Amino acid sequence: MLGQGTVFPDQHICMREEGLLPNRDIILTVLDACGMLAALQEGRYLHASFAKDDLILDSTIQASLSNIYFQCADVNEKQLSPFSYTECTVPKLAKQVNHDNLSIVDCLEHEAIGQDLQSIFKESAQKGMISDSLHILKQMRWKGILPDKYSLATLISACSSQSAISEGEQVYAFINEAYTLGLDPHLGTALISFFGKCGKLEVAKALFDRIPTQDVVSWTAMIDAYLRNGESRDALRLYKQMKLVGIKPNEMTFAGVLDACVLESSLAEGKQVHQEIVNTRFECNLFVGTTLLSMYGRFSCLEDANLVFDKMPCRDVVAWNAMVAASAQNDSMQSFQQWLQMQEEGVLPNKATIISILNACTVQNCLTEGKRTHSQIVAVECESDLHVATALIHMYGRCEYLSIARSIFDTIPDKDTFLCTAMVAAYAHNRNIQEAFNLFDKMLSEGLSPDKISFMSILSACVSKTGLDDGRLMHMRSIFCGLDQDGCVAAGLINMYGKCGVLEDAVKTLKTAPKRDMNMYIHILSACAIYSDLVKGRRMHTCIVEVGLDLEVPVGNALINMYSKCGILQEAKLIFEKMSELDIGSWTVMITSHAQHGEGEYALKLFDLMQIKGVHPNKVTLTNILNAFTHAGMIDEGFRCFGHALHPHSTMQPIVDHYNIIVDLLGRAGRLSEAEYLISKMPLGATACTWTSLLDACRNHLDVERAEQVVEHVFGMRPNDRAPYITMYSLYSAAN
């Protein structure tokens, strides 16, 4: 006990407990009392409390603290100053007091002292301890110590990676104060990256201009900042400017610029950058090569992607993933071959590889390969991974295996929005609207916020007059969730109302949309085409001209389709001929229009002309053209187009949907043996839809014997489906 002299320290403690901070005179009085009474414990407590409150200690206060340590310590402790004591304990004490519920005195008793502030700051920054680093930074600032630029840059990077915007801005304020003239390139680059990620592009630009000597890292950071903020055109402009001033790009620069080319949909610029990569001998760089693969995949240039891939001297799992993903995105069956090849070469697939393969199975409706991949997933025990499970549900939903999709869904204990959305989409794809609604409502009740994909999945399943009531319910739910003003959801609502035949509601939704885009107009034109509503179609055409969208290629394609479906083929031809630019969609809609109007020969001429012009059919083109020939009963024309896809030098390989259409075409013509033979030659196996199509053809042509064999395949794939029983009953009745 200190006796009567304890009144001063005790009063100070009471003030702190009441939330009152002492002024300088009180601090000096209390410290003097501790010194006179040799009150080391109380002195340590006061010292640490000043540091915790971020109080600036002037020379007089520091002298009083030194006096306490001198009066109370042994020979070793007398050598310590309050500076060394504060340097070590301030950040650690604050952390221990806040997190470990220790008293400040206890912390002081056990804390090592005497370390250098610079090294402590460096260590805290490297470990990403932002709060502690800021505390040390304040101590250094008070003492006039300037931290080294690399530690500051490390701290800024930590703020960037942890999205600590407020803390990063505090560090920026310190740097601004310390570096009033030019900005060190290392620090400037870190700050550019930080503000680029924070969405403060103007600040990033100002910082870039402040760097006196801009190196390739600074330029690359600024290019990345533009990209992160959706300014891909400015990123490409800056890249060109960088080359003009003689700065040579590195691998990170090339990767960013290639991403900009993709965002700008500029294949020409992408190929130009590729040539620069070759010239600078970066093509063999694994990172650059992988980025090139991704770019060519996004542009559907599989031949170019394969060339890049074949030239890569070393291919890791990331490079293989990029190649598999490129093939999967473009509906190429080579993704399955690559999946096997990478394993033969000893490269172990990871989750990204598995998801890419599952996506390929989903897009190509390839159940056989999907099941094989699923068995491998089970073998490596990653079925419970959320991302893998989501991809599996997508695949089984698309292949119409809802029971398996649901069983996978039920095995995941902690479901997220993406997993639930995949299951909702699976139900919607299979027209099981009630279950989709049930799961959607369950998401809401469990606090999961459905995203716009959930809404659009269900809305896409409500596109018939029988689905109108469900569509209206989804409209109400979108209002409840605040998504009705989202552009994609609004377009989905317009599409739903239009295809349900309620064009007035579609137009009303268009008028209330906060921002009208061309997709909304296209959906209404599609509805006019479906219901052959020429009056509303012409009215919408006038509106489109008024808003200046008539020159857009997708809008022109929709107008051609609308006039064709309304029987005004001449008007469709005029629009086609007036279009300044034609894409694959323009050719597709014209070819299918002529096929639907019975002009098969002219449709085939257009098909050949399209390829002469350098436009090659894609999956959608071939699907639409084959469907048109099928419904027009043009068997020979359909076979010719299908044969084009089967040609070894074709730019596109047929997918399951194309085989299904030809099976349907042959079935309609009564050529059932040929249809069955074609099924046996399908590279990835037939689906339930394939066998069901042949079963329907057997019923129509009273082929009981063949039907009894075919129905077994259907039962094997759809054990709970009643439709095959009804088909067989109908066939037996007709045959008797």
Task: Explain briefly what this protein structure is.
With 736 residues, this protein is mainly α.
Notable features of this structure?
73% helix, 736 residues, disordered N terminus
Outline the structure in words.
By secondary structure, this protein is an all-alpha fold. Among the domains are: 113 residues; 81 residues. The chain has 44 helices and no strands. It is elongated, with a radius of gyration of 35 Å. GO terms for molecular function: RNA binding. This is Pentatricopeptide repeat-containing protein. Pfam families: PPR (PF01535), PPR_2 (PF13041). One of its GO terms (biological process) is RNA modification.
Number of strands: 0
Number of helices: 44
Oligomer: single chain
* Helix percentage: over 70%
Overall SS class: mainly alpha
Q: Report the biggest beta sheet as strand number plus sense, adding barrel if it closes.
A: none
Shape: elongated
Poorly predicted runs of 5 or more residues:
1-7, 74-115
- Average pLDDT over all residues: 83
Q: How far from one another are the termini?
A: 113 Å
Strand content: under 5%
Radius of gyration: 35 Å
Produce the secondary structure layout:
Layout: H1 7-17, H2 24-36, H3 40-52, H4 59-72, H5 75-78, H6 82-100, H7 104-110, H8 117-126, H9 130-142, H10 149-161, H11 165-178, H12 185-197, H13 201-210, H14 216-228, H15 232-244, H16 251-263, H17 267-279, H18 286-298, H19 302-311, H20 317-329, H21 334-344, H22 351-363, H23 367-379, H24 386-398, H25 402-411, H26 417-429, H27 433-445, H28 452-461, H29 468-480, H30 487-499, H31 503-512, H32 518-530, H33 534-546, H34 553-565, H35 569-578, H36 584-596, H37 600-612, H38 619-631, H39 635-646, H40 656-668, H41 672-680, H42 688-700, H43 704-717, H44 723-735
Helix pairs in contact: 2-4, 3-6, 6-9, 8-9, 8-10, 9-11, 10-11, 10-12, 12-13, 12-14, 13-14, 14-15, 14-16, 15-16, 16-17, 16-18, 17-18, 18-19, 18-20, 19-20, 20-21, 20-22, 22-23, 22-24, 24-25, 24-26, 25-26, 26-27, 26-28, 28-30, 29-30, 30-31, 30-32, 31-32, 32-33, 32-34, 33-34, 34-35, 34-36, 35-36, ...
